[in-house]
Amino acid sequence: MKTFFRLIALVKPYFWWMALAALIGFATTGSGIGLLMTSAYIIAKAALQPPMVTLQLGIAGVRFFGLARGVFRYIERLISHNITFKILAKLRLWFYDAIEPLAPARLMHFKSGDLLQRVVDDIQSLENIYTRVLGPPLTALLVAALMWFLLGVYSLQAALLILCFHSLAGIGVPLLTRQLSRGLSVGIMNRKAEQQVLALDLFQGIGELQLYGQLPAHLAAMQSAESGKLQLQRKNAIIEGLHESLTGLLMNGALIAILWALIPSISTGVVNGISLTVITLAVMASFEPFLPLPSTLKHLEADQLAGERLFEILDAKPETVAPLTPLPFPAEHSIQVEQLSFTYPGSDTKALDRLTFTVLPGEHIAIVGPSGAGKSTITSLFMRFWNSSEGSISIGGHNITLFDPEELRRQIALVSQRTYLFAETIRENLTLAAPDATDDDLKKALTAAGLSHFTAKLDEWCGQHGMKLSGGERQRIAIARVLLQHAPIMILDEATANLDGVTEREVTQTLNAISSGKTLITITHRLKAMEQYDRILVLEKGKIVEQGLHRELMDGNGLYRRMWELQHVAEMTG
Ligand SMILES: Nc1ncnc2c1ncn2[C@@H]1O[C@H](COP(=O)(O)OP(=O)(O)OP(=O)(O)O)[C@@H](O)[C@H]1O
């Protein structure tokens, strides 16, 4: 129930619009009932062959209710769709706002297909919270109250009978169908989530699946998820048919009961034949708003689940929050890392263990070490994707937690091993780093990054994940982004690791050119052109085990020299 009230709180700003839509929904159904009643009145009265003039009121009624029903239905749809789109927009923005600070630390537990389902299907299901969950019961209640009142004028017994039948149709049938379909909506939703995850894995990993002969097994898993979903949907359709039949049965039962209660009143003159005909059709029409009620409970169940899944994201505490009054980023940007330790949640070994080092403005340092030594963890802490458990990183003498994380990320340009390119144009992939950049700026950055042949292709599509570009070109786009960012500090985290020897050399040259005058931290496990660095820190199992210039480290007999010899012997023999 808590989730339901939180969802209601979300749509609270539209309360008056929803009340208006419910009222107009009631007017629509009321007009339908009025139309049937006045039609019945004309037919019954005409059978007695009265003078034409006595039918005029009925004819005017038919015209009025006939027109009113259409007009009210249109206005009601207009308002409820307007509410729905407003809710949808609000939910999407709210979800994106909530998800942004969670990346990447809090999102790594979610599969991307699952996140996709939350943003598409769950939100889509919540957009109907008014039209399918809140609106129908309100309309049904108003119509039922009108009928109780109408019948009460003739007979208390008839009013009580219709109250019983309405209660059965409005409460009994929905509860019964809910009981029968318990878990179905949740099951269908889970199957859909499973399908999304499998589909996304198929699109992204089709190469690997083919390579290892796992494509048939993956397709079979997708097929099984689909047939599982279909089975549940079939069951759902049968239950839906059942509730419609039950409501129809109750409507006919109500009709017989009301006739049974009112026919004796004809002899006493309380009800005449014409009124009885009118009442009969009104009773039938009054069941129309009860038809969607069983689905209301099902939608409520689905919305509760969708709400829980979305609140799970919303309630997750972001790893990094901006301070209330962030410090401006200092002009002097020497870096001081002091006793920095970090352990990933759920891990019992320290990824970083009491690191201490400084980087002066304009200095170029390299952090090297074997795989798993903790090199990339340093990048994550610098970018504040994670927060350190102990120790600190300071820039210009201020702990980086005092800066706005967004500003910090603007001031530290990062080129990592894998550059993500959006399935957009070259221009859009570049302006990500500088939304206000002119075409001239983009062309200059592309030329400096060694992509002068791309300057005429700003509007060219990069393909899914930048598939239309080579690995080297993708890294050069990342370099162009860094150039556009104009950040004083650069971190290159295995920026050339995925490139072939020739491209690696070319990209490294470009990187050297653009990093001149900037503070540079290069993270790598490949010891190439190490003479250029002012200092090299050697990391092993989260600790700095050696540091110095290339030649000093080569003079020693430590890990650095062993790594260097291993790599260069391997290269010579390879
Ligand atoms: N998200 C994570 N959750 C738990 N442990 C992690 C996570 N990311 C990294 N680790 C662990 O932390 C340690 C340091 O990882 P890190 O990625 O910083 O090493 P690295 O030196 O950059 O390695 P490589 O050169 O292979 O990229 C490793 O033992 C790794 O398994």
Tell me what the structure shows.
The chain has helices spanning 2-11, 15-47, 56-99, 112-127, 129-154, 156-180, 184-211, 215-268, 273-285, 293-315, 375-382, 405-411, 426-431, 439-448, 471-485, 501-515, 550-555, 559-573, and strands at 335-342, 352-359, 364-368, 390-395, 398-399, 412-416, 489-493, 519-524, 535-540, 543-548. With 574 residues, the chain is an alpha/beta fold. Strand 4 (390-395) and strand 5 form a beta hairpin. The protein folds into two domains: 2-315, ABC transporter transmembrane region fold (Up-down Bundle); 335-573, Rossmann fold, CATH 3.40.50. It has a six-stranded mixed sheet, sandwiched between helices. Helix 2 runs antiparallel to helix 9 and helix 8 (215-268) runs antiparallel to helix 9. Adenosine-5'-triphosphate is lined by residues 108, 344, 347, 351, 369, 371-377, 525. It comes from Pelodictyon phaeoclathratiforme (strain DSM 5477 / BU-1). It is a multi-pass membrane protein. GO terms for molecular function: ABC-type oligopeptide transporter activity; ATP binding; ATP hydrolysis activity. Residues 335-566 form the ABC transporter domain. It is found in: Cell membrane.
